[in-house]
Every structure is written in C-alpha cells, then in structure tokens.
TrEMBL record, chain A:
This is Leucine-binding protein domain-containing protein. The keyword Signal applies. Residues 29-388 form the Leucine-binding protein domain. InterPro entries: Leu-bd (IPR028081), Peripla_BP_I (IPR028082). Belongs to the leucine-binding protein family. It comes from the Bacteria. The keyword Isomerase does not apply. Residues 1-23 form the signal peptide. Keywords: Signal.
Automatic annotation (TrEMBL), chain B:
It comes from Oceanibacterium hippocampi. One of its GO terms (cellular component) is plasma membrane. This is Leucine/isoleucine/valine transporter permease subunit. The keyword Transmembrane applies. The chain crosses the membrane at residues 27-44, 56-89, 101-123, 130-148, 183-204, 234-258, 264-282, 322-344.
Length: 430, 358
C-alpha cells in the first residue's frame, strides 16, 4: 500500500510530462529567477534568452534552423538543477550552461557519460580547461584561477610591482564555487610574498558582520571577493560600513554586476571587479535587439536588464553557443545537430575580432580560439570600477593575462588527479 | 464487502499476528512489491530515476529513521541533515580508503558509523526533552556540517571541498558513478528500502518498539514498569541514526554521486524530513512513505502540470509551486492533524463497512 500514492503520482506525471520538440536546435537554460541568487540569475537568463530571440526573429535561427530555448528553474539548487538536466536532456538539448559551479560539478560526469557538452563559462571546475581529461566540458574564456591571478597581477601593478609583505584577504562563498580560487591564491602568495587571509561566508550570505569585523581588525591591504547572489550586496554594504577603501576591494567576475553595487548606494563608489567582456549597450547589436526583440514585445523577463553586466554576459554565453552550433554545422555538413556534433563545434570554435565585428559586437569580449587540449580559452580579464554617481561601470585597465606558469601547472596537477581518481586515460591531442 | 476480516479465519498465533492481517492488504503489498521489483526496472529511465524514484526511496528511508525517533520514541530531532552527512562522508571515506570493499558493506558500515554518532548526540536526551532536545540536536546539525566543511581529511583534501563517489558495482552492474543504469541504481535502493522497512516494522511491533512507545507516552510510568530510559532512548537514537545514515549514504553515492556539505545536508534537509514525518503521520510506517511521496513528488508533479501541461513561465510556476506546496501542507494538517496515514486508515474503515455505512 505504500506504493499506491507513488504509482498514482507516477501515472499523473507520465500523462503530463512529455512535450514534443518544436524547434530543431534545443538550447536549455538552467536559470534561477527565484531565491537568494535571483538578483544575479535574472539578468543573465534574460540576456541569454534575448539573444536566441534575436537570432530567431532576425535571421530565422542559426543557418535557418530555429532555436528553441527551454528555461528550467533551478533556484541555484543542485538537486533541482539535476532534475532540470534530466527533464530537458530528453528533448534533444545540445549543450548545458548551468550557471552554477555546484550544478556543474554534479553534471560533469553525467553529461560526459551522456555525450552532451557543458559550457561553464568562467565558472565550474577550473581544471576542466584541460581538454585531454575533460573532452565534454568547456570553460572558456577564462577560469577562476585565471581570474584570481589577474586580480593579484592588477593589485601588484597598483602597488608599484610588488605585494611583498602585504596582506590579502579572500571573502568567499563557503561552497565549491568560493573555494575554487584558494589554491591559486596560496600558490601566488608563495611566489609574491603576500600573506593570505581566508574569510568564508556561509550560504546565502546575508550574515557577514563577523567577517567584516575581522577585516576591520586585520586591516588587509586588499580584499578579494568570490561571492554570488545577495552575498555580494551585503559584502559591499558591510565593507562600506567599516569604511574599507573601496578601490582596494576587488570582486571576481561573478561579484561585479549592477545588482551587487546599487543597493549600497553612493558608498559603493570605487568598488572594483574583474570582467571578461565590455559593459553597457553601446554596440551595434543593441539596435537590432531594440528593433526585433524589445519593440516587438518579445524581451525575456521584465526587459529592464538590457545593457547590464550580467545581461551582456548571458548574451556572450548564447553568442558562443550559437557560433559553436554554426561551426558544428560546417564540420559535419548537416543542419540536424546532435550533442556530440555540438561538442565538436565547441572544440573548433574560433570567434576572433573580425567575427565579433560581423556579429555587431566589436570589441565586446576577448577573441576565443578553443583547441582540443585547451578548453579554458585565452584567460584574459579586465578590471572595471563602479561609478556610483553615474550608476555605471567604467573599465579601468586593459585586458590582463593570467600568470600562465602558475595556473597551467595547477590545472595539469588537478585534472590529472581527477583522471586518476576516475580511471580516465587522457586522450591524445594533435 | 470486498475488504474485511470476516471469513478470513486464523488458526494459529502466527497467522493472527502477521504484519498484514487482512488478506486484501497482503495481496496489495505483494502486488506492489512485484510491480516495484519486476515491472518498474524495465520501464524506468534517467528522469524517473534521478528526479522521482530515487528521491522518494532515499527520503522514505530518512523519514522512517526520523519517525522511529520522533514518532515512536517521542524525541524531537532537527539533526537529520547532519546525520545524513555523517552517512555520506562515512561512505565516501570508506569507499576511497578501501576500494575493494563491497558497496553494500560500505553502506551498512556508514549506517553503523552514523548510529554511533547519533548515540553520542543522543546523550543529552537523557536529561532534556521536547523543544530543548530539538535545540540540542540542532547543534549537532550545525556542528556536523561545519566539521565536514572545515576539516580537509573528510573530503580527502580536494580543492573545493566537494566529495565525489567513485564507481562501484554489484554482480558486474555499476550502481554508483555516471555509468550506472537507472534500473541498477533503482533496484539497489529499493532492496535497501524494502529490507530495512520490514526490519523497522518488526522492530516496532516487538519488545524494543513497545519500550520506545512507552517512553514516548509517559517516561516516568515506563521507568516504573521496568523500561530502562537510558537504553531505550539511546537505542532509539542508534536505530534512527542508522536509517538516516544509510539514507545519507544512498543520497550521496547512488542518487547524486557528488555532494557539498552546506547545500546537500543543510538545515533545510532536516526540516524537509521532519515535515515528511509530520505530514505523513507520526508513529506510522506507512506515513513515512506517504510523507516522503508528498514532499518529493508534489513539487515535481505541480511543475510538470504547470510548465509541461499549461506552458506557464518556469519562474511563475516556481512561485505558484512554493505557495501551493505551503498551502497544501497547511490544508492537510487542518483537515487531518494525524497525517496522511490517518486518512488512509479512515478510508480502510469505510471500505470495511461498505456498502452499508452507519
């Protein structure tokens, strides 16, 4: 009798679960518009969805094949993310972009077994940059370790070339995501002679009084933040309340959006963060978006996020996926793509300056050329600074390269450990 | 008419005291077991496995565990998530330290480790009761999760604090890791749940279960008639934690394959299992299953109806789902404070009288 309700519920879901595929290219979007991470999840999902709408409305899809973007709400929760993955993969999903390091970790083995590529753009497992061990996972244009190393490089420039004897604090989300940069920062501490202070903040990050009390007592020269969701807003407010100098407070690329700084108001002025693409809506593509998407009333969400940092990043994610699909069609000579073909497309992806120009995105982001061995992209980042008066981000540095020597060594070390643990023989790359 | 004891004569004590004294119940039970073991494995796919069946089985086991402690022994616990974490980390450490060890033994040993930890955190129950005990177990919840996040030994010094289950198989079929087939993982969990549920059912019907219930109903009276409170309470903690530990081990090894302590075993998990027990029915085996089914399946059914059936925006569906699940919980508790299991027993009473109700 214990099974009775269960079987009835099974029957109910069977009857209602199946949905026929309407379009040829299915691009799932594991989004989160609810919960403590929604402030960051919404603009990203909007940008991602609007780019597909634009392609469908303006060009009739990719090379004439319509794109179907199915959204599935994960609430940034691993369990719901897995449910979303399982429920959307049956609809012919070509690639997954979970926008959560936790979900990415969970999906890497599953998607690899299913042959579906994952593009964890600038998040997820850093060592997945090693394409010989992770053939199905892509994390270009840069990894967490690249970001950490670029931030340290920038701080060194600010300090006139050396961080010797300085104190650097890392305020991080106490999860797999937040712990990612620690190893790199420790390695770099040995190399550059600064001391590292680790300050974990537990999910969801609304309570940070104790953390910032420690910052106030120890007075680190730089504070780096690996936060997400409400944690970012709270941290910036707390930093302002202890009068920490904002231009010495540098966020990772998931801690530098408008929604993070706006709640703090004027005191957030001068806060910096790393980014791998440009900001604002000063690109030719925006006139097309205006014409085909916003004016037609087809914008995702409430349409208020256009031009924000995370909206642009969502567009970048969709743009690379679209280009990968195009590449895959070229390689395989068919418009009927399967996930393994999509993987080949990602691996042969080459979006250079010229291509960005054609797409109406000149200078929007770094040129990316993926190879069989390198899935991590160029690993470049720039530093942006918040101007609270103008309510906009200003780019204050050129693209900076990561300390390849340190990062690459760590990537090889970590990916080989993974390969050994999971009995993977790294494939040969020509 | 169709469902009654009349005419079902028992000629031995053994027959009279069996688990399901009514013949229709027995048929139903064996029929369901047959479907569960012989039919579902052939039709199950990835989605059903990962989103519906495994969550149901794992949480049923956790709910049975908590029901033993809270429903049968009357000791309120908010440490379920922490104890599940103990099971998960014990299985991880055992799997990585002894790669040759059979996965069944690994999972049973994880249950054993959790039982020991549970008994330790159950010690305060000898002095405190009710809400105060809930607070003490809450401390266990936070301490255990903090410990697994803080001490690198538990996650084998991995860079991110994530634990990942290596592949293990039984009779040549992988049951953990990404290569495991839905049928294999399903049958593996189902076997654990079936055996452990039968064991629990019989524990509860026997001397030990009766001593738990006597402590629950009035501990001073129980002590006077010769039930030792220390042994009884600690045995309730041990057995309950054993079940929860196994649920945690299955949760990590078979269902997810990877876990992060703060998210997978947080306080939310403790509340979820407690709600399952309360909604299903305190002090009822059936209630544990019904509660788990209600809490696990309802959100998914609602989501599929709204997004799949009516094409509602996923975000709107999520908001409606959160509201609906909450209101349904309140509705069921108002209509039947003794839980879904009580609804079922009322239905049974009605069936016995049918078609001549009075």
């Amino acid at each position: 009798m214990k099974m009775k309700v269960f079987v009835a519920a099974l029957a109910a879901t069977v009857a209602l679960g199946a949905v026929p595929a309407l379009a040829d290219l299915t691009m799932p979007s594991l989004s989160y518009r609810t919960g403590p991470y929604a402030p960051n999840g919404i603009p990203f999902a909007d940008g991602y969805a609007d780019y597909w709408t634009l392609l469908n409305e303006r060009d009739g899809g990719i090379e004439g094949v319509k794109v179907k973007n199915i959204e599935c709400e994960t609430a940034y929760n691993t369990q719901q993310g897995v449910e979303c993955y399982e429920s959307t993969k049956g609809e012919g999903s070509l690639a997954y972009q979970p926008l959560s390091t936790g979900i990415t970790y969970q999906l890497i083995p599953k998607a690899t077994a299913d042959g579906i590529p994952i593009h964890s753009m600038g998040y997820g497992r850093t060592s997945a940059a090693n394409g010989t061990v992770f053939p199905n996972v892509f994390n270009f244009p840069g990894t967490y370790w690249d970001a950490a190393s670029i931030i340290i490089k920038y701080a060194m420039e600010q300090e006139g070339g050396s961080l010797k004897g300085k104190k650097v604090a890392l305020v991080y989300h106490n999860s797999a995501y937040g712990k990612e940069p620690i190893r790199t920062l420790e390695k770099l501490a040995e190399k550059h002679g600064y001391s590292l202070m680790l300050l974990p903040v537990d999910h969801p990050g609304q309570e940070q009084k104790a953390t910032w009390l420690q910052v106030r007592r120890e007075k680190p020269d730089y504070v780096i933040m690996w936060g997400w969701g409400v944690m970012n807003q709270v941290a910036i407010k707390e930093a302002a309340s202890i009068r920490y100098p904002m231009d010495h407070f540098i966020g990772g690329w998931w801690s530098g959006a408008e929604t993070d700084v706006l709640p703090a108001g004027d005191v957030a002025d001068g806060y910096k963060s790393i980014n791998f693409h440009s900001v604002g809506n000063d690109f030719p593509i925006y006139s097309d978006l205006q014409k085909y998407v916003y004016d037609a009333g087809k914008a995702a969400g409430d349409g208020s996020n256009a031009g924000t940092v995370l909206y642009n990043r969502g567009m970048a994610a969709a743009m690379w996926a679209a280009e990968a699909a195009r590449t895959a069609m070229k390689i395989h000579g068919t418009k009927d793509l399967t996930p393994p073909m999509m993987r080949d497309g990602y691996e042969a992806l080459n979006v250079d300056e010229a291509r960005l120009n054609e797409l109406g995105l000149p200078g929007f982001t770094v040129p990316v050329k993926v190879t069989c061995a390198n899935h991590g992209g160029p690993g470049l980042g720039l530093i942006q600074q918040w101007d609270a008066k103008a309510k906009s981000w200003k780019i204050v540095s050129d693209f900076i390269g990561a300390d390849r020597e340190v990062v690459d060594e760590l990537i090889v070390e970590d990916s080989m450990a993974y390969a050994k643990e999971n009995n993977i023989t790294p494939r040969e790359c020509k | 008419m169709l469902y009654r004891e009349t005419g079902d004569f028992k000629v031995s004590y053994r027959d009279d005291q069996q688990t399901f004294p009514i013949i229709q119940d027995r048929w139903l039970f064996w029929g369901m077991l047959a479907v569960a073991f012989l039919v579902i494995p052939f039709i199950i796919d990835d989605y059903w496995e990962k989103s519906i069946v495994l969550p149901f089985l794992v949480f049923s086991l956790a709910a049975i565990g908590l029901n033993i402690l809270t429903g049968y022994c009357g000791l309120l616990s908010l440490g379920t998530g922490g104890f599940m974490a103990v099971g998960a980390y014990a299985s991880y450490k055992l799997m990585t330290a002894f790669p040759e060890l059979n996965i069944v033994i690994v999972i049973l040993l994880s249950g054993g480790v959790t039982a020991a930890v549970g008994m330790f955190f159950g010690l305060p129950s000898l002095r405190i009761k009710g809400f105060y005990l809930a607070v003490a177990t809450l401390a266990a919840q936070f301490f255990l999760v903090w410990l697994f996040n803080k001490v690198p030994w538990f996650y084998n010094y991995s860079a991110t604090g994530q634990i990942t289950a290596p592949e293990r198989s039984i009779f040549g079929f992988a049951v953990t890791g990404p290569e495991a087939t839905p049928a294999a993982t399903y049958l593996f969990c189902l076997a654990f749940v079936t055996v452990l549920a039968l064991v629990a059912k019989n524990l509860i019907r026997g001397r030990i279960g009766r001593s738990w219930m006597s402590i629950r109903d009035m501990d001073i009276a129980a002590e006077i008639i010769g039930v030792p409170p220390m042994r009884t309470k600690l045995s309730a903690f041990a057995v309950s934690s054993f079940y929860i530990g196994i649920a945690g081990a299955l949760y990590f090894t078979v269902w997810f394959g990877a876990a992060e302590p703060t998210e997978a075993f947080g306080i939310n998990q403790s509340f979820l299992v407690l709600f399952m027990v309360i909604i299903g029915g305190l002090g009822s085996m059936l209630g544990s299953f019904l509660g788990a089914a209600f809490m696990v399946l309802l959100p998914i059914v609602l989501k599929n109806i709204m997004v799949g059936g009516f094409d509602v925006l996923p975000v709107l569906a999520k908001h409606v789902e959160i509201t609906l699940v909450g209101s349904l919980i309140i509705f069921f508790l108002i209509v039947e404070p003794h839980g879904l299991a009580r609804l079922w027993s009322i239905a049974k009473e009605k069936m016995r009288l049918w078609p001549f109700p009075h």
